[in-house]
C-alpha cells in the first residue's frame, strides 16, 4: 500500500488531536505567552524574555510556599496510603457489609470541596464546634485561626478524612482482584499474616497503589479550595500553599506575567515529581534481576 | 509420608443442607495408602476440588473425620498439617527470586538457613530449576512457574502427601508430557503419596497407579486403569473412560437373552442369572472396541445400518444404528469397512449388564 493512502488514518485520530489541543495545548500556550511578555492591555505588550521566571524563582515567599507544599504532600502521602491500605484490609470481603462500607467511605468524596472547608471550620471552632469545643474542654487550647500548628493539624485531619477513602477504594479493588489460590497457597506454605501481606497482597496492589500515590500527590500538591476556605492561608503565611500564593499574585495583585511564569514552574514541578514517583513504583521489587 | 484416611466424609456448602442434592460431597470413605500415586478423575463440578481441599485442610468437612496415619487432623488448618498442594494456576511470590520462592515454606517454619539452602538446591536439581535460581520468578514461563509451585511442596521434608489440582491446565501441550513424566520420576524417586485431580482421562491413566472416578459427589469406582476400562462399576465410568465411551442399550431379560426392541442378544449365563435378580432398569453395555463388525451375515450377527465412519489414523470409529439407537464400534485401521449394512456380534464375555446404572456382578 502507498504510504500516502495509509495516511488517511490521520483523519481518524484528528478529532482526538483537536480535543487535546483545545483542552490542554492552547490554554497552556496562553500561559506561556503571558509568561514571557509584559501585557498592559490589548495591543500593549512588551517581550521580557526570562525576567518573570527570574523574579519568581528568586522569590523568598515562593520558596517558603514550596517547602510548605512538600511538607504537606509528604505528610498526606505518609498518612493516607498506609491508612487507606489498612482500612481496605479490614473491610469485609462479601455480604451486605461491603456495600455499607463502600457507600460510607464514598461520602466524603461526594461533598463539594469548599463545603468541606466550611464543615471543618464549624467542626473545629473552639466555642461551638464538636471537635474544637471537645478539645478545649480538656483544657488544651486549640484554635486553628490563631495557632499555626493547630491550623496544620486541622488541615491534615481534613485532608485525611476527605481523601483516604479514595486510597481505600483503590486498594480494596486491588485486593479483591487477587485470586483465592494465592491465599490458599500461602496457607499451605505456612505464611504468617504479615508474610501474606508483604509477599502477596502488597505486590499485587502495586498497580492500584501507583495510581493512588500519583493521584494523592498531584491533588495534595495542587490543593486550593479547602485551605482557602478553612484558613485563607493563615495564620500569617503558615498555610499559604503554592496555589494560594499563586492566586494572590494573579488575582490579588494582577501580576499576570509572574503568575504565568509561576504556573509553568508549578506545572513542571508536579510533572517531574509524578514521573519520579511513577518510575520508583514501577521499579520497586523489580531490581536485582539477572 | 503418611496414609490418609477419610472417614465418612460429607460436605455441603449450604449451612443447613436438606437433601442429598445440597451436598457437594455425598459420602466418601476411603484410605489413600502411603506412597501411592492416585488420580481423582471426574467431570467439572463433581466435587474433586472440594475433596482435595478437605484433605489439605483448606475446607473443614460438614461431616466425618480426616486422619493422617491414624491421627485426627479434621479441625487443623493446612499449615498445621504436613501437606502440600499445587493449584490449577501457578501461584508465585512475584517479587521473590526462584530461590526465595522455594525457600519460603521452610523459612515460614523457622528452619535453619543452612538446611534451607541444602533442601532448595536439592529440589531445584530434581526440577531442573538450578540455572533459574537467581532469577525473579515473575519473568518465567508457565511451566517453569508450575514447577516452582510444585517445588514449594517438595522442598518440605515433612510432607505427608502432595495434592495436585489440575496442575497442567495452563501448560502448553508439548510441555505437558514432560512435566507429567517429571512428576512420575519424582514419585518413583521420593515415594511420596500423590493425589492428582484431573478431568483428563489420559492424564489420569498415565500418571496414576490407582484412578478414582468421581461422579456427582461420590467416588463411583477405584481401580487400576485396566480395571476401570474392563469392568466399569457404573455406567458413568463406562461412558467417561475410553474414547469413545461404552455403548449402552436399555434392555429386558428373557432367560439368558437380552432383548433390545425386537433384537435378541445372548448373554453370559451367570450374568443373566444375576441380572434377573437385580432391581431397576437394565442396560446392556459394551466397549466399542469389543463389538465385532462383520461385512456379511454371521451366526448371532445383528444387522445394523452404518451412518458414519471417522478415520482417526490408527483406528476407525463407526457410528451404527441398532433398533433406532446409536452404537459406536472401533475398528483397527487395516480392517475393511462394510458399505452400508453390517452385522455386529456382542461377545458374551465382553457384554456387561447394568441395573440402575450399577454393574451387575457377583457380590464381593
Q: In words, what does this structure look like?
A:
The complex is a heterodimer of chains A (290) and B (364). Chain A has 14 helices and 2 strands. Chain A is mainly α. In chain A, strand 1 and strand 2 form a beta hairpin. Chain A is globular, with a radius of gyration of 24 Å. The mean pLDDT of chain A is 84. In chain B, helix 2 (98-108) packs across helix 3 (113-126) and helix 2 packs parallel to helix 4. Chain B has 364 residues and is α+β, with helices and mostly antiparallel strands. Chain A binds chain B through residues 179, 181-182, 184-185, 187-192, 195, 199-200, 203-204, 285-286, 288-290, and chain B through 53, 56-58, 77-79, 83-85, 87-89, 91, 93-97, 104-105, 108-109, 134-136, 139, 149, 152-153.
Task: Report on the biggest sheet of chain A.
Answer: 2 strands, antiparallel
Strand arrangement in the largest pleated sheet of chain B: 6-7-8-3-9-10
Counting structural domains of chain A, the number is 1
* Beta strand count of chain B: 21
List SSEs of chain B in N-to-C order.
Answer: EEEHEEEHHHEHEHEEHHEEEHEEEEEEEE
Low-pLDDT residue intervals, each spanning 5 or more residues of chain B: none
The CATH first-level class of chain A comes to Mainly Alpha
Order of helices and strands of chain A: HHEEHHHHHHHHHHHH
Number of helical segments with 4 or more residues of chain B? 9
**Structural classification of chain A:** mainly alpha
Question: How does the overall form of chain A come out from the CA principal axes?
Answer: globular
Class based on secondary structure composition and strand pairing of chain B = alpha+beta
The largest beta-sheet of chain A arranges its strands as 1-2
The amount of beta strand of chain B, in percent, is: 25-35%
Mean pLDDT of chain A: 84
Amino acid at each position: 500500500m502507498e504510504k500516502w493512502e495509509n495516511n488517511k488514518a490521520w483523519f481518524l485520530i484528528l478529532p482526538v488531536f483537536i480535543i487535546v489541543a483545545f483542552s490542554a495545548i492552547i490554554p497552556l500556550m496562553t500561559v506561556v505567552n503571558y509568561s514571557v511578555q509584559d501585557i498592559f492591555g490589548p495591543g500593549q505588550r512588551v517581550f521580557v524574555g526570562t525576567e518573570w521566571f527570574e523574579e519568581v524563582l528568586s522569590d523568598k515567599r515562593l520558596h517558603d510556599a514550596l517547602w510548605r507544599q512538600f511538607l504537606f504532600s509528604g505528610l498526606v502521602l505518609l498518612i493516607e496510603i498506609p491508612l487507606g491500605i489498612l482500612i481496605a484490609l479490614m473491610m469485609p470481603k462479601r455480604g451486605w457489609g461491603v456495600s455499607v462500607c463502600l457507600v460510607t467511605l464514598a461520602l466524603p468524596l461526594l461533598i463539594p470541596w469548599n463545603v468541606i472547608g466550611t464543615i471543618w471550620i464549624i467542626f473545629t471552632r473552639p466555642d461551638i464546634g464538636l471537635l474544637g469545643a471537645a478539645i478545649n474542654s480538656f483544657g488544651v487550647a486549640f484554635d486553628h485561626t490563631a495557632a499555626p500548628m493547630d491550623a496544620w493539624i486541622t488541615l491534615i485531619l481534613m485532608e485525611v478524612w476527605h481523601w483516604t477513602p479514595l486510597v481505600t477504594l483503590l486498594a480494596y479493588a486491588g485486593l479483591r482482584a487477587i485470586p483465592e489460590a494465592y491465599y490458599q497457597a500461602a496457607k499451605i506454605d505456612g505464611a504468617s499474616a504479615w508474610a501474606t501481606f508483604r509477599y502477596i497482597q502488597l505486590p499485587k496492589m502495586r498497580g492500584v497503589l501507583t495510581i493512588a500515590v500519583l493521584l494523592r500527590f498531584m491533588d495534595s500538591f495542587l490543593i486550593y479550595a479547602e485551605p482557602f476556605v478553612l484558613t485563607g492561608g493563615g495564620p500569617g503565611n503558615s498555610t499559604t500553599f503554592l496555589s494560594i500564593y499563586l492566586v494572590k499574585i494573579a488575582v490579588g495583585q494582577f501580576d499576570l506575567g509572574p503568575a504565568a511564569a509561576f504556573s509553568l514552574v508549578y506545572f513542571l514541578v508536579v510533572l517531574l515529581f509524578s514521573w519520579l514517583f511513577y518510575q520508583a513504583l514501577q521499579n520497586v521489587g523489580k531490581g536485582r534481576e539477572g | 509420608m503418611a496414609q490418609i484416611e477419610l472417614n465418612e466424609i460429607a460436605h455441603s456448602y449450604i449451612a443447613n443442607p436438606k437433601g442429598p442434592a445440597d451436598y457437594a460431597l455425598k459420602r466418601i470413605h476411603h484410605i489413600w495408602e502411603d506412597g501411592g500415586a492416585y488420580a481423582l478423575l471426574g467431570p467439572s463440578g463433581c466435587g474433586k476440588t472440594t475433596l482435595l481441599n478437605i484433605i489439605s485442610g483448606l475446607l473443614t468437612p460438614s461431616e466425618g473425620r480426616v486422619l493422617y496415619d491414624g491421627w485426627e487432623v479434621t479441625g487443623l488448618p493446612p499449615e498445621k498439617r504436613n501437606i502440600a498442594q499445587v493449584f490449577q494456576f501457578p501461584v508465585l511470590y512475584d517479587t521473590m527470586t526462584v530461590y526465595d520462592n522455594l525457600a519460603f515454606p521452610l523459612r515460614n517454619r523457622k528452619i535453619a538457613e543452612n538446611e534451607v539452602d541444602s533442601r532448595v538446591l536439592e529440589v531445584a536439581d530434581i526440577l531442573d530449576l538450578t540455572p533459574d535460581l537467581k532469577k525473579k520468578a515473575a519473568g518465567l514461563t508457565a511451566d517453569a512457574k508450575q514447577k516452582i509451585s510444585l517445588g514449594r511442596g517438595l522442598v518440605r521434608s515433612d510432607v505427608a502427601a502432595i495434592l495436585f489440582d489440575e496442575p497442567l491446565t495452563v501448560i502448553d501441550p508439548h510441555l505437558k508430557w514432560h512435566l507429567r513424566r517429571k512428576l512420575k520420576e519424582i514419585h518413583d524417586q521420593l515415594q511420596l503419596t500423590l493425589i492428582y485431580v484431573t478431568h483428563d482421562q489420559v492424564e489420569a491413566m498415565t500418571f496414576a497407579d490407582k484412578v478414582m472416578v468421581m461422579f456427582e459427589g461420590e467416588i463411583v469406582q477405584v481401580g487400576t486403569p485396566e480395571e476401570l476400562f474392563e469392568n466399569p462399576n457404573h455406567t458413568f465410568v463406562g461412558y467417561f473412560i475410553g474414547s469413545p465411551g461404552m455403548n449402552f442399550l436399555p434392555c429386558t431379560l428373557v432367560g439368558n437373552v437380552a432383548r433390545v426392541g425386537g433384537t435378541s442378544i445372548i448373554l453370559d449365563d451367570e450374568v443373566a442369572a444375576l441380572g434377573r435378580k437385580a432391581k431397576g432398569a437394565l442396560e446392556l453395555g459394551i466397549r466399542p472396541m469389543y463389538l465385532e463388525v462383520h461385512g456379511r451375515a454371521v451366526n448371532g450377527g445383528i444387522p445394523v445400518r452404518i451412518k458414519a465412519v471417522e478415520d482417526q489414523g490408527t483406528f476407525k470409529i463407526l457410528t451404527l444404528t441398532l433398533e433406532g439407537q446409536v452404537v459406536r464400534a472401533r475398528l483397527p485401521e487395516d480392517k475393511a469397512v462394510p458399505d452400508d449394512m453390517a452385522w455386529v456380534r456382542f461377545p458374551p464375555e465382553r457384554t456387561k449388564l447394568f441395573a440402575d446404572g450399577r454393574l451387575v456382578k457377583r457380590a464381593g
